[in-house]
Design goal:
378 residues, FAD/NAD(P)-binding domain, D-Amino Acid Oxidase, Chain A, domain 2, 2 domains, 14 helices, 17 strands, oxidoreductase, TetX_monooxygenase, cytoplasm, monooxygenase
Amino acid sequence: MTTTPVTIIGAGLGGLTLARVLHVHGIPVTVHEAEASPAARTQGGMLDIHDYNGQLAVEAAGLMDEFRAIVLEGRQAMRVLDTDGTVLFEEADDGSGGRPEVMRGALRDILLDSLPAGTVRWGHKVTGTRSLGDGRHEVTFADGTSLDTGLLVGADGAWSRVRPLLTDAVPEYTGTSCVDIYLYEADTRHPAAAKAVGGGSLMAPSPGQEIFAHRESGDTLHAYVMLSRPQEWFADIDFTDADAAGARIAAEFEGWAPELTALITDGDTTPVLRPYHALPHGLRWERVPGVTLLGDAAHLQAPNGEGANLAMLDGAELGKALAARPDDVEAALAEYEEGMFRRSAETVVFEGADIHQIDSEHNTAQRLISLFTGQDKG
């Protein structure tokens, strides 16, 4: 049996899942990451890891016990509120759901800890890639160094430096941006907002705008405030001035219940703007020897609850395909890509611009409730 060493660009959840599955099967792998260290950046908020994709990846990585240990009990609870604060739908967390919540950073730590020391090469920011022919590619780093590899995987997110080897497609603005805000010591310092959110997640949708929030570990609320506006509209807001930025965003929610707008105005952090971009839905490319993509590098979408799950499943499926065909890398890559194209094209998009284009507040909320109860398959 022969194995081709694998070079992964990006130490996110998808890239690390691939690295772990390859390690389990004895396939040599290195991961090159732009960040200087595992602690260089906060790794985002809470993720629900689904039993039909993300958890399958965890199983393939042999890390289910470690995963169960980081699940936040009770966080699967969910409610949909009207803009006046009326609870339209509520679902308790009885422990039987298939989407347990974990902190992204804790999940990443599990994957990192499962890899041999030195697998991840930190501080390696990619500045370019090019084909060398015969299925080999060169990767150039910001420090002036480079490498050539016979199997390159771009797990480097929305603005992938590997993607141009395969396709000219680039992400485009979806028309919707998110402003995210944290509220700390919520039960004592922000009781109205904490009561509205409850023990899990809250969604308050309306055409062109939405407030989503969830209770993270400890007593922290994380709010995501979504608005369908041009990027130029957001450019006029000074996000370095927390009070002014919060007031400007909250003005777009005039007339909403105060316990909902408090998630904007009472934040303990400076609001962070996150424009939503997406690649063309159903993007495919012709097979290029020696290189492929996974996760957002391959199928960036507006947030829909599936991004991290799909990235991890991509990594697991690619790892398994390479392990099953060690003497025929191209057949393994072709098999993986066909499955990845199918999975990403089938994903239901119900947040961001899609749901915001529904005409009335009532229909927006009811569509969301129908999706959660399985009555609307998109």
